[in-house]
Amino acid sequence: MKPLEGLVVVAVEQAVAAPLCSLRLAQAGARVIKVERAEGDLARGYDDAAGGDSSYFAWLNQGKESVVLDFKTPEGAALLRAMLARADVFIQNFAPGALDRAGFSYEELAELNPRLVRCDISGYGSGPETAQKRGYDLLVQAESGLIAVSGSPGAPGRIGVSVCDIGAGMTAHAAVLEALLARGITGRGAHLEVSLFGVAAEWMTVPFVHAEYGKGAPRPAGLKHPSIAPYGAFPTADGREILIAVQNEREWQRLCSDVLGDAGLAGREAYASNIARVENREALDQEIAAITSRMESDRFCGLLDAARIAYGRLNGAADLSDHAAFRTVIVRNSGGSEISLPAPPAVDLADIPRTGGPVPKVGQQTEAIRREFGA
């Protein structure tokens, strides 16, 4: 038995953040009823890479039921209200206030169902200054400062996945589980709010502290760590780049003697501590690169393994499937075709999933849900 079996989740959701939250609940056994417009979740149209489905939609909507309704109509409002009266969790990421204006404020829902846990996800929260501000992932990356500390020197860059959306979905999932635990003690539901900006702002704690109290926030460092050296990418003779991460002085000495073949490098005053190495990073990186560029990548990695130095190959998305740590699940897309997707990252080792739930067509369960909830 999965931990959330028996729980009912109603999700008025689209795109990434809220669907990721409800996906995690579905993977834990909850029944997730996804409410869509007649044209469907906008993420259905992002691409068709997943055997005809959008890659985003196939990933985030495994194992859900889809019902089409318009909560602004009397009929649609009645059906949504009937579902929420029997639901345990309500997740929504429409614009702040949209559901409240349609008669679904938290106060009204708490009267209807005092045990309901509601989670609102938005770009910038419900504060009056930002409630109507559109908060898409890349825009939040920019406004939160994430882009300013990412990319390369002189060329800031976005994080290559929808990191603010994903972070908001993960945060909302944790908050919902905490609220369900609290409900088990108090018998009362909760009203939760998660914003993409709030999540990104917390992630910016270290740069923020440096900006407010230190010497300024770290600048974009490319494939280098801003405060540890050597920690970054180095070239090899076969054109591959290998990232190495030296965490302490013992590792630094082993890197010099056992990997680079130059024990004297560790004893130089300019490189005698991490602080010194960061201050002299450019010269240090050039000296290391001059050695690694004469080695084949497999030999370099073999020496790093033997010296117990952490490293990582600079892989592309196509390399994922060959990685020893990579796990997949088989999912049926909305057209019934099987596709292989990355597996959920947290699993019960006694019951590792091999398949994911099917991806629903738009409104696939609408009639069945209307009959079930009598509206």
Give an overview in words.
This is Carnitine dehydratase. This protein has two domains: 8-203 and 326-373, 3-Layer(aba) Sandwich (Rossmann fold); 231-313, formyl-coa transferase, domain 3, CATH 3.30.1540. The chain is 37% helix and 15% strand. The chain is built from 15 helices and eleven strands. It has helices at 17-27, 55-60, 74-85, 98-101, 106-112, 137-144, 163-186, 196-203, 205-213, 249-259, 264-267, 274-279, 281-292, 297-306, 366-373, and strands spanning 8-12, 31-36, 65-68, 89-92, 117-122, 190-195, 231-235, 241-245, 310-313, 328-332, 338-342. The chain has a six-stranded parallel beta sheet with strand order 3-2-1-4-5-6. The chain has a three-stranded antiparallel beta sheet with strand order 7-8-9, with helices on one face.
